[in-house]
Amino acid sequence: VEMKQFCYETLLLFNFLTNRKMTYKELYRCNTDLPQIEKAVKKELNQVYFNFQEHEKLHHSYIREKQELECIRRGDLEGIHELSTEIYEGDFGTLSKNPLQAMKNIAISGITLFTRAAIEGGLYPEEAFSISDSYILQIDTAATIYQTEALMTEAEYEFAKCVRDLKLTKSSNDLIEDAKSLIYKSLHSRIVNKEIAGKLHVSPEYLSSLFKKVEGVTMNEYIISKKIQQAENLLIYSEYTIEEIGFYLGFCSQSHFGKTFKRINHLTPNEYRERNKKKEFRTQE
């Protein structure tokens, strides 16, 4: 990131001094041996073609891939399960000389596709990217091919489940959906109804009234529930202290965080952490 920032600052100075405009991509190409790279890619491509023809193998079915991604877009868990029981021709390509690394590369590519499909299905981008990051980080530390493949399969089900749950609970009001999206992006700070309303260009009174009518809870109740849901994940899956989690989620004090958490879960944050360390990752619904 620091190198990229340095390049952008250098380009800004270059463009100012020479009155010529050079883009980051052009700078990158000027300092890269592209002919050598292209030659290496073509050589590897010919080898891949030869190996697949020699062994009469086919790549993973594109039709099957489209079917899986469509199931995620619809939130169709049953469809994904049915596809997993079908026998189909084709195999994954070789994405590394190391078998474990090859499977990790395949899994990361798959999760990238799952993430886009889930967003197209209606999942909030920030939520989808957060789920993607969490699975990719687990894949990065996976010790076996089996574990890596299992994580990819689990991620596919998780994305489909999130889309399904969203479709079951999603309100039909675009304004409220926009408000919920803004709330999700601001969970780490103190969220004020007036500020949300201002960003949506409506009065706080109107937004509060409409939110309660559509969602069945007040905006403040909704915000607290999402903050506590995020706190639950952090308590289970992070090493942050309880004080750090409360501060991160915008509570005014550790005492306020603890009382709010216990009111909702009937457990203190520390009790919850000890009791639920192995619990499934909770997504923002």
Question: What features would you describe in this structure?
Answer:
By secondary structure, the chain is mainly α. 73% of the residues lie in helices and 0% in strands. The protein has 15 helices and no strands. The protein has helices at 2-18, 24-30, 34-54, 62-74, 77-85, 99-120, 125-140, 145-169, 174-185, 193-200, 204-215, 219-237, 242-248, 254-265, 269-275. Helix 4 packs antiparallel against helix 5 (77-85), helix 4 (62-74) packs across helix 8 and helix 13 crosses helix 14 (254-265). The longest helix has 25 residues, at 145-169. The mean pLDDT is 82.
Biggest beta sheet summary: none
What's the end-to-end separation, in Å? 32 Å
What percentage of amino acids are in beta strands? under 5%
Low-confidence stretches: none
In angstroms, what is the radius of gyration? 24 Å
Q: How does the overall form come out from the CA principal axes?
A: globular
Counting helices, strands and paired strands, the structural category is mainly alpha
Our count of helices gives 15
Secondary-structure element sequence? HHHHHHHHHHHHHHH
Question: Average pLDDT, to the nearest integer?
Answer: 82
Number of strands: 0
How much helix, percentage-wise, in residues?
Answer: over 70%
